[in-house]
Amino acid sequence: MIALDTLFTQQQPDAISATLDDYGIIELIGADAESFLQGQLTCDLNRLSEQPFLYGAHCDPTGKAFSVFWLVRSAQGFLLIMNKSAISGSLAQFKKYGVFNQVEITDVTDQWHISGHFGESIALPDVNENTYVIMLGEQPKQALVVSQTTISTEYPQSYWDALEIERVRPQLTAENSQQFVPQMLNIQALDGVSFNKGCYIGQETIARMKYLGKQKRALFRLSGKAAEVKPATELERKVGDNWRRAGTVIMAVNRSPQSFDLLAVLPSDIEQDTPIRVKGDDDSLLEIHSLPYQLG
């Protein structure tokens, strides 16, 4: 079995497969489903004519994200794949506005098996109306599989989450729902925000942050020693001889005893060599890594 402390983007495995028990799915069907989603999400659904899936965020009217998702067109409508704990917030918001549209909105998590696969020799099922394969990256090759048939897997979800953390591609959990504008999660750098598709819920705040240069926070990958780290854990940075609030953990994986890899929202202008620790854990020490992409 491949060790979890392996950096998968540097030492690409042959094949790793994991059942993603923490993920769930919202389905939208109906005559107005596409236009309804176009007015709800940060991504541009018109691009589904050019590409097989979209990455994006679903926000409240203040521009704070309920969830981050992958969206795929299904045989009946659309599937939004996201962290299971974030579904309730997005579902309630969709249903609030959905009453004015011909659209059915349902949590269909129990109808699908969600698995993640990555490596240089991954075996993937055939695509049909009951199975969707979303290719998410290279080096290593990475795919998200959504199927109404159970797919056999060999590893726990922590392996998938570790690769997502290395790629600095977040998923929001309920603990951080409605806390961050998408740019604070780098969603725009991952092609998940359209600035020219027109109006959608939260668009005013998101556009203001881009065009008025008001972005003060961004997402970073950190790693190091800590007793415990989980979503919504608070971090501190060293300022002189003191420690001050630095930011909030979005995702975390325990890669080896007392060694964590994590994503956290920090000040966007933070120096990479700034010492970071977990609030309340004086023995912890975390290092900030360079981003694998440009923020833009």
TrEMBL record:
InterPro entries: GcvT/YgfZ_C (IPR029043), YgfZ/GCV_T_CS (IPR017703), YgfZ/GcvT (IPR045179), YgfZ_barrel (IPR048451)
UniProt record, GO biological process: iron-sulfur cluster assembly
Source organism phylogeny: Bacteria, Pseudomonadati, Pseudomonadota, Gammaproteobacteria, Alteromonadales
Protein name: tRNA-modifying protein YgfZ-like beta-barrel domain-containing protein
Signal peptide positions (record): none
UniProt domain tRNA-modifying protein YgfZ-like beta-barrel: residue ranges: 216-281
